[in-house]
Amino acid sequence: MLSLGLHRWVLPTSLLLLWAQNVQAAGNRNLTYSYPLQHQLLSPLEVVSGRPERCPPCFNCQLDAFTCGNFGECSKFDGQCKCPPGWAGIDCLTPQCDSLADGEHRRQREEGKECECKDGWTGINCNVCQTDDACVGFPLRGQPIDDDDRIGNMTCYKGGETVFNNHQMCNVTNRKILDMLPGRPPQVTFSCDKEDDTCQFQFWTAQVESFYCELRDCSSRAERGYDKNSTFYECDKIECKCVPGRFICGEDGSIDITDFLKEDIKGPASFTCTSGQGCKFEEPGMNELIMTFFGDSYITLQCEGGECLHYSQVPGYEPPPKPDNSAFVALSIAGAGVIVVLVSAILWWAGRTRSSDFGAIRLPENESAKLMTDHVPASLHFSNISYSLGGKTILDNISGSAKPGQLLAIMGASGAGKSTFLDILARKNKKGSVSGTTLVNGRAIADEDFKKVTGFVDQEDMLMSTLTVYETVLYSALLRLPREMSLEAKKYRTLETMNELGILGIKDSRIGDTGRRSISGGEKRRVSIACELVTSPSILFLDEPTSGLDAYNALSVIDSLVSLARDYNRTVVFTIHQPRSNIVSLFDQLIVLAQGKLIYSGEADKVTDYLSEIGHPCPLGFNVADFLIDLTMQAGMEPRSLDSPPVEEAQPGEDDSNLADEERALARARSRTRSSSISLHPTYRASHPGVDADAGTEESTTTRAPSIRSSTAYIRRQTTRLLEAISPASQVRDGPVPPKLAELIDAFKRSEIAGQLYAEIEQVASAPTVQGNGNGTTELPDVAVESSLSRGRKRASWGTQFRILSGRAFKNLYRDPALLATHYVAAIAVAVICGFFFQNITNDIAGFQNRLGVFFFTLALFGFSCLSSLNLFANERILFMRERANGYYSPLTYFASKILFDILPLRVIPPLVYGGIIYGWIGLVPEVSTFWKFMLTLVLFNLTTASVILLLSIAVASTSVASLIGTLVMLFNLLFTGLLINRKSVPAAFQWLHTVSFFHAAFEALAVNELRYLQLHEEKYGVNIDVPAAAILSTFGLRAESFWWPNIALLGIFFGTFTVLSYLVLHFYVKETR
């Protein structure tokens, strides 16, 4: 009775469902246009109550009359079905076409037609993959990706075992079933979801679904044999439903197994496949039905399955082990060690003292007799030499002469203009305006010819501390002596010059510097003189050669100059501050200056008589040099002449006795006291030329008052004086000459000595070819012509200069090994530290980060270590300017030698050592081409950074300022490296900042070289994701195809540009200007 009762309900219900299905199918074709959105969002009650009378109800899966096919999920929000993959339609009973990889963008199958699947896909609803190409870009389960993201290395796994979501398309092979359905082949689709432990089973005839089942609490396993493989799916529960009106589900002329499926199909169920034998589906109730009607024990199937997986997700896949880099690491460390040992051996060999430098020297016969005698004697006459700077007169009409074999001493107090006058005589570059006449052997010659026959020794000794005395003088000889001279002759002249100056005994001693003293100050001064004397100059200028020396060393230096002048017929001109009496006795000519004015110019022996003639005799036993300095100083401190306003005038309300200014009162009292001893009374001096000036002095000095009358007036006066001192007008205005000093100047102008001097200069200028010297008439040779003809003044060629300067730079480098050793030790130590922390770098996201980190750290290391280049030129700036001014070499050869011996030892070898150690240790890509690209990038970056720092050291004289600018340049480049700021986030107007950053060029080149073809394996969302590193590079704003261009090319362009700019600045900017 119960069965009959149920069958009473089956027919009406089937008819209702069939009617509803037809209505929905008719309306589904225009669903979007037939049902507004508000109707779709109505609740079930609103749908029922709101529909027109006699209209069938709208589809709503929350109503008992409707259901979601294939166990689709019914949404509680809108009453619509959420269909499983491969199904669509309002009731999830319409198959989808195209491919499973298309996701939600699949077409529904048209009614009465079969699906046309995309290439590589098959099945009634196109859910089964056939080829690996079909899986390209297939989304990994659970991974959120964009439409443009495509996952590589996907494969179509056909092993039958479910990894995530497996789909199988099966043909029923039961003979009886096939016989009963001619032209309507029965088929089965079977799919499983690993995450939910569920499977889906659909039965089809003629590609029309008849019934479907959901299997729950499923497990799967696989058995691998030597001759066959088997997969087993076992599910504890099963629930099946008919599709009303379909085959065996109420279709005309067929049975209806709806109640049977609902009541008898409970589980458990199994789905088993064996390679070569097909598959079978078993369930107790289903087996009984098959046995009853078709005579088989179960449904037999021939299935084809497929699941898109990444190759690392295929069951049984084991990732290959990472290549063993131990051999590469060993070779890298061994190579770095060989480089260090080789460099050390070269330095040791180069640093050995070779006896050939100091052994016996054999001169060719044609050179042995003309070394020190081969020079052109030159007399120097100068008249009315004046110099002004900024509108202020520094020197005023200085005249004098110096002849071969004589010493001309220029004396004066500090600030008298001695060094300025010597610079003008030596034709140094001066900032101000120079006027006057200088004659050499009675001729005005060009500066270029003048410098060929002169030498100049500065007041400060600028010598390379690492060189020996012999090497210092020898390099001067090699660079400046004629190129036609043999090497043996140049060495002989070096030793001969050192012997003359008494420094041959210390030839093997190093010059030394502060903290590492080697030779004394006097010896160092004589070395400086030897560097100029070795070229056998006709005229030798020296700026205060005794400055900073004790009395004995000062006498020794002057005695050497005397020997040079008198024994070898040289003209020696030098400045001296306040020499002792035994030094003064060696002078031949003497010039005394005071405030840029000429006080005396003539023979040194006559200065005492001259002082007596003008009323200022030098006391017996008193050093005439000290007396002259005191005389000029006291005359310079005298009040101004009556033609100009007094220096200090009492303001209204002030006491005119200077009592309100203690300092000024003391100064005036002192000046008046001293003025009494040097007062020049013309009448008295004319009638008593030999009487001491002190005899007529009876002036009284002004005494200081006991109190100050007005502090306000004092402050006002001091403020006025300060403002006058700092005002521009006061700096450019020539003040009046003190009267006593003016009297000394006028006294020399009217003297007989001055008359003879001016007459001699006029005679030489008017008749330059004849000079009377007391021994007859001798023609004075033309210095420029004679030196060119007899000595061939072509100095060392550029190639020779480069070779000599390179040797000097190399010796300077290896004899002061602190910088060299620090760079090498730092490269090795930091490489060991990086190798320890970054070793065994992995091919995942963390490994990607570590690679970028080690690249960034490496660039920062070498970038900031290049700041050590600041001192390489800064320590030699003054030496370069002086040697260039003295004609040692061309700026190009000096620059090339500095570049060579800064690049090779400090900028090429350290990155090679560092890269050789860390590359294999941390496990970067073990390919030879990739390794050498890595090395090339490091070396080019180091060279570029060093060239930038070299430009700063040349352009900026202050080391501290250059260091600050260099640090800011490095920080700017670090900011735009590409790791701290993403290139894509920078506004378009400022993206060029990445292009001009050499850090960015090197960083991107290193990253692209290492990561361009690398696949990163990351376990994410429960699966192993394979991500191309190039995709992440693009996320960082790095371009995956930018190694050679623009990055490596940019590094080369930067290096060349900054190197050329450095040379141009050196050539045009770094000059000696006094």
From TrEMBL:
Question: Which residues constitute the signal peptide according to the record?
Answer: 1-25
Biased-composition ranges, Polar residues, are 698-707
Task: Quote the cellular component terms of the Gene Ontology held in the record.
Answer: endoplasmic reticulum membrane
Q: Which UniProt keywords apply?
A: ATP-binding, Disulfide bond, Endoplasmic reticulum, Glycoprotein, Membrane, Nucleotide-binding, Signal, Transmembrane, Transmembrane helix, Transport
Predominant location category: endoplasmic reticulum
Q: Where in the cell is it found?
A: Endoplasmic reticulum membrane
The answer to whether UniProt assigns keyword Transferase to this entry is no
Q: Which CDD domains match?
A: ABCG_EPDR
Q: Which residues cross the membrane?
A: 327-350, 818-841, 853-874, 899-922, 934-954, 961-982, 1044-1070
Question: InterPro entries, alphabetically?
Answer: AAA+_ATPase, ABC2_TM, ABC_transporter-like_ATP-bd, ABC_transporter-like_CS, ABCG_dom, ABCG_transporters, EGF, EGF_extracell
Q: How is this protein situated with respect to the membrane? A: Multi-pass membrane protein
The GO terms this record gives for MF are: ABC-type transporter activity; ATP binding; ATP hydrolysis activity
Q: Report domain ABC transporter positions.
A: 380-620
Give the family per the record: Belongs to the ABC transporter superfamily. ABCG family. Eye pigment precursor importer (TC 3.A.1.204) subfamily.
Q: Report the protein name in the record.
A: ABC transporter domain-containing protein
Say which species the protein is native to. Trametes coccinea (strain BRFM310) (Pycnoporus coccineus)
Q: What is the lineage of its organism?
A: Eukaryota, Fungi, Dikarya, Basidiomycota, Agaricomycotina
